Amino acid sequence: MRIKNYTTSDSLYKWIFEYADFGIIITDHELTVTDVNRWLLEQAGKEKDSVQGKHLLEAFTEIKERKLEHYLYNALHGASTILTARFHGYLLKLRSEHDEQAGIMKQTVRITPLYDDDLITGLIIHIEDVTERLIREEQMQKQNEELHKLNSTKDRFFRIIAHDLRSPFTALLGFSEILLNDENMTEKQRRDIIKMLHDSIGDNYVFLENLLKWSQLQTGHFELQFTNVRLKEITDHIISIATPLIRSKEIEVDVSGITPDTIIYTDKQAITSVIYNLFFNALKFTPAGGRVDIRSVEDEDATIIFVRDNGVGIKEEKLDKLFRIDEKTVSTPGTNKERGSGMGLLLVKEFVDKLGGEIWAESIEGAGSTFYISIPLQVTGEKPGEQV
Amino acid sequence: MFLTEVQKDALTELINIGFSKSAASLSELTGYRILLGIPEVKLMPIAELANGLSHLVDDKIITVHQIFNGPVAGDAMLILNHNDSKRLVNLMLNENDANISDASMKDVLSEVGNIMLNSCLGMFGNILKIRITFTVPQLQLETLEKLIRTITIDNVEISYALMVSMEFRLRDKAISSFLILVLGITSLEQLLLEIEKLG
Fold first, then answer.
1. Pairwise CA distance, residues A359 & A352, whole Å
2. What Cα–Cα distance (Å) separates residue A20 from each residue in A14, A109, A122, A129?
3. Partners of residue A81 in chain B, C-beta under 8 Å
4. pLDDT tens string B110-167
5. Coil, strand, or helix at residue A124?
6. Which residue of A lies nearest to B133 if distances are taken between CA atoms?
7. What is the rounded CA–CA span in Å between residue B49 and residue A162?
8. Contacts of residue B35, Cβ cutoff 8 Å, sequence gap at least 6
9. Of B55, B43, B54, residue with least CA distance to B10
10. Which residues, in sequence order, are CB contacts of B53 under 8 Å at separation 6+?
């Protein structure tokens, strides 16, 4: 079906021009605008005089600026064209009726030649506002991404539960059964088993603590309270907890890089969990006689804290996946077969995100790893107080 | 009426040239490298089109339809299986189909079909040194049977279908599509005559 020229006296033509909720521009064969409807003028914020009688590319300079004029010339040679918002965004700079925040209206444009018998006498350009549709699609995309993330979180949660919550009970049941039933055990053997039971219960306690904090984060029940925190107090506290492990593995720990005047504005509980997990991970993957450092440096807008070890290191391909929620691998046993859950790094990443910081790692397999976290110097407009 | 081997080879080559241009346009639009396989050309009476296509497409198809006019006139259609059309749009936009509304999917397919059909028809126009004009693309979701009924209902002249099978390749995925040109015998004879002159 070909579109014929309507005369201006045609009532249908007049009706469309007055009431249509889409844009229409009609040009002659030289692209001079012969008519433009009210809707389009309103959205363009232009008067009819500034468009009608003008060359289309002069009335709407954005067409040429965006190199879309060849579609018009193709149509003048008979090639009707559709330009979709997904590929081109828009043809004309029009305001969107649907969302003032959306800026320029997203458009689906149809450019069709006008005929008088077989002669092309001009173009009719039809512009449809698809901004609202695209906003809805964008929202849908965000929701889908959110759902995907939640689903991955759920999968990981169940994977961790299945792998790490169940298996230690097998060991606990086994050890306790030996204690109960083996009457010929020596005192030394009994103490060794009790030590293993104690270590296993300790590991599980840490795991459950992390699991609890992580689930509180997921359900929004963990509220961050930003205060000025003295970093050394936190590292001293963590080292005191870790002392038995440090001694048993004879690991040299150096925290001289943390001075008493290093103060960060953050949530104390969250940052303690972060450093605790990174430090215990470093101890876990450092063989007896190794070394672990905790240091901090300040750059322009953040305090960077890093935990460095000279342990077993991490393979490059695994390094990229360490903090990904959808990563399916489970934790690697430590140098003394210490067990872990994969929960620690997951929690660390969540906390660092919530604190407005970043986390990254460097590692050389066989030579050691360094985990960095950056904590913004100030995440709110408040001035650091004296609550240190 | 049938295509000689020479005519078939010439048509295949010409359509391939036209589609190479459209692949470049599509790559520019999407930012992805888009490859189109070598087209396979068949000529059949319109009455046999349903049979010719039935084992290649599903019952549910998407058609981008443009009517072309001029000394050579007819219907041009890009046909995709419904599921393939979704995959094609997702690959081109790098999105999950759950995020794209039917309206946006129709728009994108219309523009893709428009580029493909325009390149093919434009190339015929250049060869024949005639101006072929075509309408704005219409996207239809219908059965094969209904589609064929639509394009044959007003035809008084004996019509033939030039069926071109081809494959899109983008982001390591292949998607089959079919381009159908329905031509009256007069237009077809003129097209084949001009093509023979090229040789």
1. 7
2. 10, 15, 21, 12
3. 114, 118, 136
4. 999 999 888 888 887 887 788 888 888 888 887 777 877 777 666 666 778 888 888 8
5. strand
6. A78
7. 58
8. B23, B168, B169, B170
9. B43
10. B79, B144, B163, B178, B180
